Amino acid sequence: MLTQALLRALDKKAVWVIGIFLAVAILVPMANLLIPPGQFGHVPTYMVSLFGKYLSYAMLALALDLVWGYCGILSLGHGAFFALGGYAMGMYLMRQIGSRGVYGNPVLPDFMVFLNWKELPWYWLGFDNFWFAMAMVVVVPGLLAFVFGFFAFRSRVTGVYLSIMTQAMTFALLLAFFRNDMGFGGNNGLTDFKDILGAPVQAQTTRVALFAATAVALALSVLVCSMIVNSKLGKVMIAVRDAESRTRFIGYRVEYVKLFAFTVSAIMAGIAGALYVPQVGIINPGEFEPGNSIEVVIWAAVGGRGTLVGPIIGAIAVNLGKSWFTTAFPEFWLFALGALFIFVTLFLPKGIVGLWQQIFERRRKTPAPPSPSQSADVERGKDPASFSNPQPRPAE
Amino acid sequence: MLTHFLRLALLTLSLLLPAQFAQAQPTDIPARIAAMGEANLRELTSIVTDLAATGDPAVVPVLTALGGGNLYLDETSGRIVIQGRSAITDPLTGEEVDLGAGADLSRIRVNNSLRRDIASALAGMTLMSDNPATRFSAAQGFLAKPDPINIPLLDEAIAAETDSNVLRLMQAARAVTILSDSEAGIEDRRAAVPGVVAGAGRNAITILTGALANAPDELRPTIEAALAGLEQSRAVWSALQNVWFGVSLGSVLLLAAIGLAITFGVMGVINMAHGEMVMLGAYTTFLVQLVIRQSFPGLLDYSLLIALPVAFLVTGAIGVGIERGIIRWLYGRPLETLLATWGLSLILQQTVRSIFGPTNQMVIAPTWMSGSTDFFGLAITYNRFWIVIFALIVFFMLLLILNRTPLGLQMRAVTQNRRMASSMGIRTPFVDAMTFGLGSGIAGLAGVALTQIDNISPNLGQNYIIDSFMVVVFGGVGNLWGTFVGALTLGIANKFLEPYAGAVLGKILILVLIILFIQRRPRGLFALKGRAVEQ
């Protein structure tokens, strides 16, 4: 059964994507460690870390795409799951500092000593253990998504209402994590990490290893998403996206399908966050900003939602653009980002991947008239969100 | 030699000048004060009488200090000084005096009869003053420092008083004096308690608590009962104060959310750039005031009123432009509209930031909006008051537009059933554009109001957008009353949670409560009822 699912999942495109990222996970570290600096083909360490960050963003965008592109749930709060996973990882890294902090307290992180706390709060217990922390990376975002989704989907909160609610969720968490007495470092967040699994975080080999881990995690995420999307459940997800009520009347428990997708997606986002934190060296409440979560949506939209490759391409492309813009024309980045939002929604509803497919298919199929099944496919793919929230079109 | 002489001359001149400009009997007051140092008690009495007879308010500190035992003679220099809590000051000018190292202060002694004289002299100058404000502050002084000696004076003043406010305070001062006088009879003291409660206002609790500490046992129950009553009424008043703060916050939310409710209700479009419309309205106000200040300074007090139509037209026009340029192409895809308008909000924010800079701008409040009033113990600031009134006006105007104009009729029709409305000949694209313009214009009006209570910065809109969403989602779509009830409920709930949970935690609680509420009623408080599966 599982092998069957695996085989089905490994359609041609998914194999390519997984293969590329596995190759990247091996080749880039080799290019960094084996080729000496200055020689052709050497990848500098800062570049490795930068792209490690992009890959964790790509994983977040893929997670969002699973719920938005395939299930029609526009979550404006995926940054919250990402940040929660990041905080779980950050708490582990904080505990690893031990007595090397500024105040030299072997148990309490610096900010707690600063706040005059006497002992570790209960929710920090166990985070000195790596595997416990990793379990929390999965459990905390997954549980939050499960509980939130359970209530929201059961009472049929859909469309923009759900989007606004997810935004409220991440906003509430933002406010909460800013509070000093929450015990998560308040405004400054968690930073000044030293070790991960005994290896210094700043060391070249650690950075390269983290990059490889991120690439492998991304490849695994693509595999998991591909398995889900190509399974029967995936077909139901797409049915929910395109005609939710019809799917419900046919007899599917729509809320459970949505809940499954939402929870899996949140867990993926949490893992992405956990991989992100040691590579950038800090996690603070700013990650909960509603604006960040909306930016993730635009990554997926730019690449092409409803595809597995699209969000990855989108996340890397937009973030490359961001890095370039913020150094070259810092004051124009927001103009560019805003214009990107408008341009993509107006002119590129299927994203870069959709554009490429369109060009490719037009060239190949120009002579033959499109078959009915294809035209239906195009029609549906043109605007998936509208079917989950049919707004009567104005008669024009 | 010559310079020395000149300096001396200048010094003399500078010493003489103030004396020459003093009121009645110019040289008298300093001379008499100087004479206090060597005077015996009888001479002091006559000096006090003389000083009081001048009627010059400048002698009040001297007499107060003398009565309070704070007036000293410096034996070395012969100067009379007041020994304050922190510094030694000149009795007439009130300026700090440096007596140097050789100072040898000795108190100018007074006896009880002289103190009584001083008190009555002071009372004559303050309690009996022609100016009600002086009388008021004198009574406040007696309230703060009760001394049984003053009772006859207070009685006299009460008999002569005409101003009801001052009279109440004087009676309170008398009651407090009796209450704190350990030599007065228990019955008298007990009878004084209601007087304290009635007259001392917000200080009554402190005064009574202080009196309770050294009251004899017979008196305690009365004071405790009075204290309990005061605590209860204070709880009621603080609840009322919270309601007022809540209404004030709610009206701001109402202003910010009502435009959003219209666009969302009619078009199903969540306009993420709504907050930026508010921000643009605020900047329009700033510009209008700038122009008025430079060209028509006489109209400065009316600049807000002039800014209202301007802001409405500017933001309304921008709204119509957005609808025609972007949103029109995205109908039927609400989630995409949300993204596109978010992008637009980023562009608008950055544009304003590039033009006006990231710093806060100031809009000066007109005189009729600054200050505050005391409404039965509720502190009500005028700017908040006018914003509440303004929010109500805007709300009812909008209600009128929706229910009494052809455009409103068409808007309601499109809200309820777009296709049917279109079939009946309503030009839905036109209605959409007008609705969006109206919603944006109202956001601009909200911006004008917000200039009075918030900083005008490019981020202004961001602070309100999530709260506005919450109001719309909570209140329900398609019914303005839903928005009204939603805004006020959220405002009041917020202000009631704040004292218990703190501002931030209160806000988090509100968000969590709304998220839970939406589970119960996914379409808000006042949902449009329809028979379709999906709305």
Automatic annotation (TrEMBL), chain A:
TM segment ranges: 14-35, 55-88, 129-153, 160-178, 208-229, 256-277, 297-320, 332-356
Region (Disordered) location: 364-396
Keywords: Cell membrane, Membrane, Transmembrane, Transmembrane helix
Example GO molecular function: branched-chain amino acid transmembrane transporter activity
Gene Ontology CC entries for this record: plasma membrane
Annotated localization: Cell membrane
Membrane topology type: Multi-pass membrane protein
Superkingdom, taxonomy of origin: Bacteria
Pfam families associated with the record: BPD_transp_2
Protein name as catalogued: Urea transport system permease protein
Organism whose genome encodes this protein: Devosia crocina
TrEMBL record, chain B:
Signal found in the keyword field: yes
Molecular-function GO term, any one: transmembrane transporter activity
Keywords: Amino-acid transport, Cell membrane, Membrane, Signal, Transmembrane, Transmembrane helix, Transport
Membrane topology of this protein: Multi-pass membrane protein
Subcellular location: Cell membrane
Keyword flag Membrane: yes
One GO location term (cellular component): plasma membrane
Primary location group: membrane
Residues passing through the membrane, by range: 243-270, 277-296, 302-322, 334-352, 385-402, 469-493, 499-518
Signal peptide: 1-24
GO BP term, example: amino acid transport
InterPro entries per UniProt: ABC_transp_permease (IPR001851), ABC_UrtB_bac (IPR017779), BCAA_transport_permease (IPR052157)
Coiled coil residues, start to end: none
Family as reported in the entry's similarity comment: Belongs to the binding-protein-dependent transport system permease family. LivHM subfamily.
Designated name of the protein: Urea transport system permease protein
Organism of derivation: Devosia crocina
